[in-house]
Amino acid sequence: MFVHNLRLGAKSLRRNPVLTALMIMSIGIGVAASMITYAVFRAVSGNPIPQKSSVLFVPQIDNWGPTYNRAGEPPPALNYTDAMALMKAKKAERQTVFFPISASVISTTTERLPFKVRGYATFGDFFPMFEVPFLYGSGWSHESDDAHEAVAVISKELNKKLFDGANSVGKDIQLDDGTYRIVGVTDTYDPKPRFFDMFNSDGYTDPAQVYVPFHHMMDLKVDTWGNNTCGGGPNRGNDYQSWLRGECVWLAAWVELPTKADEDAYRSWLRGYAEEQQRSGRFGWAPNVRLRNVVDWLDYRHAVPPESRIALTIAVSFLIICLVNTVGLLLAKFMRRAPEIGVRRALGASRAEIYKQFLAEAGMVGLSGGVLGLILTGAGMFGTGLVFGKEIAKLAQLDFSLVLLTLVVAVLSTLIAAFYPTWRAAQVQPAWQLKSN
Amino acid sequence: MLQIKPILAALKRHKAGTILIAVQIALTLAIVCNALFIIQQRVDRLSRPTGMDERNLIAIENRWVSKKEEDTSSLSRTDLAALRSMPGVQDAIMINSFPLRGGGWSTGIRLVPDEKVKSKAQTTLYFTDDHAIATMGVKLIAGRNFLPSEITSVSPREVKTTPQVIVTKALADKLFPDGSALGKQVYMNDSTNPPATIIGIVERTQVPWSGLWANDFVENAMFLPVQLTGDYAIYLIRAKPGQQMNVFKDAPATLIKTDRLRVFSSERGVRTFEQVRANSYSTDRGMAILMGVICFVLLGITAAGIVGLTSFWVGQRRKQIGVRRALGATKNDILSYFLTENLMISVAGVVIGAALAIGLNLWMVTQFEMARLSMIYVICGVIALLLLGQAAVLAPAMRASRVSPVEATRSV
What we know:
Chain B: It is found in: Cell membrane. The complex is a heterodimer. Chain A is α+β, with helices and mostly antiparallel strands.
């Protein structure tokens, strides 16, 4: 019987072709608009490290004071003094600070021109903390950090460029004037948004190709290739040493705190540290610290671009209008057949059967709308780069779950829209219709 | 127009359809008003002038490979000499950033050397030389240009302030509203640094950022007679009229011939200013296009919905129409009946819709830091939707007016 209803439904699509086409278009366009914007929204609002997002934290210390900080919030990164205090204290299970670097790679094996790579100067804890996957080798040890060793971890892409993808662990790489021993090659590692480096980027730029030890880079007096933000107070520093002692922030810091107790202990340590700075006269204000986990941090740093949320809001309203439209059109389509319903009812069809038939018909309309929506969504994916930029558009993809969701949303929303017209159809009185005929 | 009473009576019998059309018109109005408003805001932004001679400019972002910082100032001088002597080039400069580039320096400016006093204005800093005004094509409206002897070469880390600065008119007016900026002293960065004297005022220059956050200081710019050292060098080249594409093609080769140990970054290496502008405002332009498409499609769908439902009504009422025609109603009476009916539903719809539009905007103001919706958009939207409704109902109404009086005698 259900199949029969579907067949009737498919057949009735061909009746009133204009009304049917209008409905299918309306549903298709509405669904496509909301699916495209949803795909983008999903891509930018996902949790980039779900398995660890509750144990990774960003410590913030207000070293600018109430005159220069932004609305009472501590700066989003640390200065050298505070970062080194944090690294020395070792109060967390794991801890790292880092800054972006940019270096020329001089190929020793091929006759290639030097080229630039971007990466991070960081500590060995970086790799296990952020679960960086390795193709060969591993990150470096605490000993390498402490000994200011010239070691490096390179990305799969850089390894392919320099060594044709062969295991390069133990080989050397030439960065600017220095030689670094490769200890590891990462597999593709590109979490989006790049939650750990929201201080230097919007989280959607190209991934790092090289990682080198922090202390070694400081020995070379390498500048940050990222942001260097000063509150506006004095103590900016005019040469390298006074800049290090100054209060400009340029180091992103992260700690890993596995339990709630660790988190509380760390928070009070941060507070205590700020109190100490106040007592020693460096801070002329009460301790003002923050400890945000990954999710809170992304929210605080506005990882989801406003364009994406505005577009999603508008697109969902758009879908609602398309559904209101569908309700009206279905009502017209169904009520046009009042005489036919009357005959069926008079011949003994129950209300339930009328429901079944008309809902099946609506389902067919919804499915056709869904298929059209799918085609439009696929086409629209090419246009996402226009609105949201190339980096974000790359992330929004028409995968299996989105295909399924498109069809389900199309059919379900059409069925919901069909409910009132179907109810009206089922109310048709057999006697009245027969009489007027 | 005297048909209002019977129309109301008839509409009561078609409550569902009436409400659906009204709701659809209301929602469409709410979305279209806000979408139009977003379009206008974005278009306003992306057509802002930078103050430069955009049509003839080329920007090159160059990075030295394996060079010592102390050598870079002579390297860039050689580059500039080579660029300036190219045929088709009017002038060229090295600068730390330029309008719409996206990254640069910004700082607060104080009028007194006191850390406790809040800065008077936010500004961007452009470190360049005495060729900047000629290269960028900005207009000096007061004071003088830098002298070649005033240009110094400093590491980015050590740059403090300079004895002379040139400011934009917008910044001058912000700092000295009485118009007396020329010759005055200002403090930047750390106020323990010595003050700088404003020696010139240019008409207009935009900051490097196009983000909404930079809106309130978009034309506050300050030029300092400094050439920064370091491995990054940005060149702005002004081609002679009509020569832009030739210079665009030849300039990279000229630089590589001077010294080949350099890279031009793949995305921002060598660009005409048109590319810089398009890149900078791509999100704004995209958002405007998206909202435009949404408006267009939405109006289409609403019109289609009205056509669909009205056709259905006309079909349902053929007999009644026939009776009216038989009783002496003219074609025009029937036509105006349906037009009036639609107008009444539409008016109800736009009244609710106007309230919804304002509500949606207020919600977006709190969520996305958007501006308040101007009433002009609501009024335009209302007029547009009323016209759209009348246009959509016209075809079914014409069909209704052609129903012949004979229909009255038919049984269906």
